[in-house]
What we know:
- The complex is a heterodimer.
- Chain A contains 5 helices and no strands.
- By secondary structure, chain A is an all-alpha fold.
- Chain A folds into 2 domains: about 1-100, no CATH class; about 115-150.
Amino acid sequence: MTIFIATIIAVLFGCAVYLMLGRELKEICMGLFLLSHAANLVILEAGRTPGGVFVPVLGEGHLLSQLVDPLPQALILTAIVIGFAVQGFLLTLLVVTWRRAASLNTAQLAQPQPLPIAPASSSPPHVDQPQGQSTGNDPTTILTTDRQEHR
Amino acid sequence: MSSNLVMLPIVIPMVTGVLSLLVAPSYRIRRVVGIAGLLINLAMAMLICSRVLGAGEQILVLQAADWPAPFGITVVIDALSAVFLLTGALAFLAIYLYCDEQLHDTAGGLFHPLFHLLVLGVQWSLITGDLFNLFVAFEIMLMASYALLVLGTSRRQMRQAYKYVVINLFGSTLFVACCGLIYGHVGTLNLADLARLSHSGLIPSAAVPAITVLLLVFGIKAAIFPLWFWLPDSYPTAPAGLGALLGGILTKIGVYVMIRIFVMVFGPSTSQVSEVLRPLLMATAGITMFLGVLGAVSMTSVRRILSIHIISQVGYMVLAVGLGIGIGLTTENRVLAVAGGIFFILHNMIVKSSLFLCGGLMKYHAGSDELERMGGLAKQAPWLATLFFIAALSLAGLPPLSGFFAKFILVREAFRAGWYTLTFIALATSVLTLLSMIKIWSYAFWSRPDPQRQKPSAPHDHGIVQAMIGTGILVTAAVVMGLAAEPVLRSVRSAAQTAVDPAPYIHAVLGQNQVYPLELADQTLHQEDHQP
């Protein structure tokens, strides 16, 4: 069981780090979310009492070593709540960035001029990625014109 | 000694924050609430300091819901927390006075509650008695800082803010995982209990890697050598008040936690952790100090110089942490080194924030942050020049000011302990610090003003007076810390004493409950089960 969960943790950590090394802010945020799940699993597995099978309720006459330690679960609950708040914040930040900059690509965000709306052909770094072309450009134009109208 | 006073550093900013969220969205009421709350906070910190540092030197403890110590949530204020609480409370008040109007304009009314929540997070992490609550406090502090950093920013700043948010979230996640692993191996997260175990040499060696990873976690917060890359990008883009708040206070909390965890809890020579950590800390300290100051010398804008200076100063503090862990050193030497380090951190919280505020005022007067386009400020704003002059000399560590005493003790202890190379690096860094301060001074205050510069816009003039008051408070505090070095040193020494020798701390928190080991507890429970 331990090896199984450890493998899951390793896979989660690996995927998370891979995602976080990407250029899209969406991917980076997804990576962070995965990472927090991996951390929660670490607590669950590391804090498990080896022989614990019974619910820790008093008056049942079990040995202490047979009871499950409830503390790691309390820790995980707290970590989940905090992680939830952080995810909410990050998603909001993504939406705000998208509205303001019309791009979630770190390289494009780094460019100094405000809104360089490039035609579909002139985005060389992501030519091999079909997604990058379809989502990266068309909504951009729609959204920016939309935004300008609002102003 | 048990006392409900301990909860006040958490309750006061929380109440102030909620109040300033609930009151009518007018700037004036929110400001009154904010200033009143921070004043009460300062008074509370003074009261706590007089209790903890005064005659008798108590340690105030509160066990939440009266659960006995290693099982419940513990909140503790000892001398170490108390000195930080007081300095922090003063700096918060001054920074709030400086920036509330400006940030209310740019960041909107939400700025006020967020500021107080940040105060809440900082003070909670100062007084918490267990590792997991430290994580929670960190999260509150960081969430508030994320929000403050992105509110009302331009799109480029936003990208820089992502860097800060992502690296810190990564650190927090590691922190949670470490908490889990440490709990799994050691069976407790209560700091006093951990300290007790580590002083009896009972920390299993399997827990050592997890504890070492904590260095990474706190290192990200404190911006030490390999982990500092996020700092030069995120702080200079923020408004001056925020730079002071985040750069002046938040990074120091990272170092405070290092003292608390690595010196107090895992510091004794009986724990294997210290053998692993010490060379790491010493190497990092030297590199951080020197690279930081080299970066600062090469920069050409005020805010960037100051931001990168933070890194260099953190190097000194980490040096103190490393000496505090010291395996071959006598207790007296360790106490003195840690005392020097704490003095340095407190001095830096005040002086660094005041320099950031000065930088903001300079930008206001000169209309630009680039050194080349400043100039002639000594004539245009003589009061600002005075404030900056004092703060800059204090940062460089010239004798009558606070920086001198802090650096002197620290460097002397490093020399005594036989770390000659590090001593040399520390002194060289000090000279370069002075050089970069002179650079700002001669460019911004003495050289000829830029002829194309426009006069500062009128409507902010009211806020400028308040901003000068805020800066003035901090600079005065820096001067007082230098002139009254003797009493400050005494309090700092007793703070270092609790860090190096935590026996009173352990006794105050755990009392008679020093039970364990687990097999023993198992037997007692078994007997209790059969008794009725």
